[in-house]
Automatic annotation (TrEMBL):
Protein name: IrrE N-terminal-like domain-containing protein
Domain of life according to the entry: Bacteria
Organism, as annotated: Methylophaga thalassica
Domain IrrE N-terminal-like: 46-164
Cited Gene3D superfamilies: 1.10.10.2910
Amino acid sequence: MEEQKGAKEAESLLEDLGFDHLPINVNQFINAISDESFPVSIEFFAFESDQFLGKAVGNENGAGIIINSNIPDSRRLNFTAAHEIGHVCMHIMQGSSQNFACGNSEMGDYFKDPLERQANGFASGLLMPRRLVKPLTDGEVNWHNIKQISDFCNTSLEAVFRRLAWLEKAPVAMVIHQNKQFKRFVPTAHFDFYIQKTILSTDQLVSCVDVNYQAYPNEYDVVDPIDWVVPKRNGILLTELYASSILLKDGFIYTLLSYDDDCLEEVEDLDNLEMEHSQHFGRK
């Protein structure tokens, strides 16, 4: 995968340059890769819109990075800076391209652009290198561990989720709602079921932990899969699902979904099941 190629490149550079503790400071990293033969600079400007995130421009003589300081979330800003450093190290220094502008519109085509995926992977590996992140938790993909890594590494919950899910090869997914309405989901390679893009029910809202006032949970609830996913695929039926939801600011609700082998059942004829599920969602 392109993301893992980027992460490995970042981790290799960190080791070569002697970075051995968290958090990784992006300015210190830039100073470490910059020299007289190839100077690299970073500047922060307050652009009016947060639609523009960052830019990396350069040639064989050096490179410059510009970051929008008006990105409202400081941890997202930090990840954006690391992303642009990825473009410098993996693409500008290598001569594959000289100009990258990253905004919300470019991120919409993220999966179509291998260079953007490499830069995102680089940012993950730079801010959350495997050898420094693994000792922080017990390896379980839960909100308590995600929050802990987020605090140590100065990265967003979503970025940590992606990184931890890949490191642990776990069948997990993240679903994001705002004010009960479905916004998007964050897929992982090991989660095999399709996410339902439905509004949150009263029961789902009640199960949320308000982390503005409570600790981030380290456990999951057992729920009916049909409330979250299409519970069948390729002759496999998902009989149970584990869910853990947290309430953040501005009405955002992040939900982790997971399952294990005990939740799976092989079935041969799913025609009737498909009809039942279609009727179920049609009633909602």
